[in-house]
Design goal:
With about 110 residues, the protein is mainly β. It has one helix spanning about 1-10; strands at about 15-20, 25-30, 40-45, 55-65, 70, 80-85, 100. It has a single domain (about 1-100), classed as Immunoglobulin-like, CATH 2.60.40.10. Strand 1 (about 15-20) and strand 2 form a beta hairpin. The longest helix has 8 residues, at about 1-10. It is globular and about 35 Å long. The chain starts with a helix and ends in a 12-residue tail after the last strand.
Length: about 110
Amino acid sequence: MTRLLTILSLFLALTLHAQTRTNVTLAWDYPTNILSTNLTFVLYCSATPNTPLNTWTFHSAIVGTNLQATIPVTSQQNYFTLKVTNNIGEESPFSNVAVIKPPAGHLRILQ
């Protein structure tokens, strides 16, 4: 199973689609023929990419039949990464890091 999770993690990539000012949809690739309720996608977040991934804050757990999640975000949660785990505790390495940048129209310059 470890070998399988390692191979499958190579397919894992995050993409972002802005929904509103406070929500984003994170979507990822994973082989659809092995999606299962025995899998869980575990989402982590951080305000900075400079800290080790294993210290990032747990954000949410997504059932292993879903390839996206719409989640609320704050200005302190600009970076996201994902792991997949199975029901016996095996887990993949962390995915690529997704970065959320505020849209230019929502920035206000203070003088």
